[in-house]
Amino acid sequence: MHPSILLTLLSLGSILPSTLAAPAPHITKRATGSLIAIAPKSKTCAGAPFPAECKTAAQAAPFINASFKTYGITSAGEAAAIVALMAFESGDFKYNINHFPGRPGQGTRNMQSPAFNLEYAKSIPALAEGLKKAGDDVKAVVALLTSNGAYDFGSAAWFLKNKCSETVKAGLKAGTEDGWKAYTTECIGTTVTEDRKAYWTRAAKALGVPGH
Question: CB of 84 within 8 A of CB of 200?
Fold first, then answer.
């Protein structure tokens, strides 16, 4: 993991050269500031349209850190792409289900489709019983994920690890704009827009992606 990610976003304790340390019990002002630099509206949840869904930068940071550890995100470029995607899709962490236009079952912080949410949920052993009860109810499935911060913020890292090609991953690790564009179009399956690019540009700078 690039040192600047550990120091400014995740605020870990001891840093080892090839492993992630356990999350610190608190998030420093510097760490929170890095997330706010990426997602400016995440400074507060005051006035959030759906308060139960909102997380501030300080609340989001430890969950994001945990997702990097769980899914082996080890480069600044990958981390920047993941955080930028979540911040964009969730309105700076204000939402975790789709309200506009309101697609049932779409949600988590990267606004995954119901099909991917089901696959993701099936990969988490602790949700096995809940999935049996949920059956074909896509709203119930996404609720299992969004009701737990680690699962809610873990979806983007899971998706990168399991759904993106090695070529796309290599492009993200290189930290180039072309690498990010390939991630957006070839893996996420959406179009590159100036709004999306703005989030990625801020994330690349805040997380110390070389060249930014």
Answer: yes
Q: Rounded distance, CA 29 to CA 31, Å?
A: 5
> What global pTM score does this model have?
0.88
Please choose, from the candidates 68, 155, 162, the residue with its C-alpha nearest in 3D space to the C-alpha of residue 117. Answer: 155
Q: Cβ neighbours of residue 117 under 8 Å, at least 6 residues apart? A: 105, 106, 107, 108, 138, 141, 142, 145, 155
pLDDT digits (tens, 9 = 90+) for 144-193: 999 999 999 999 999 999 999 999 999 999 999 999 999 999 999 999 99
Return the axis-axis angle of helices 76-89 and 194-206, rounded to nearest 10°. Answer: 140
Distance CA 18, CA 37 (A): 27
pLDDT at 141: 98
pLDDT tens per residue, range 97-139: 999 999 999 999 999 999 999 999 999 999 999 999 999 999 9
The rounded distance, in Å, linking the Cα atoms of 56 and 3 is 23
Structure tokens at 62: 């430890």
Contacts 24+ apart (CB under 8 A), 40-48: 40/92, 41/91, 41/92, 41/94, 42/87, 42/92, 42/93, 42/94, 45/94, 48/94
Q: Residue type for 76, please?
A: A
CB 94 within 8 A of CB 48: yes
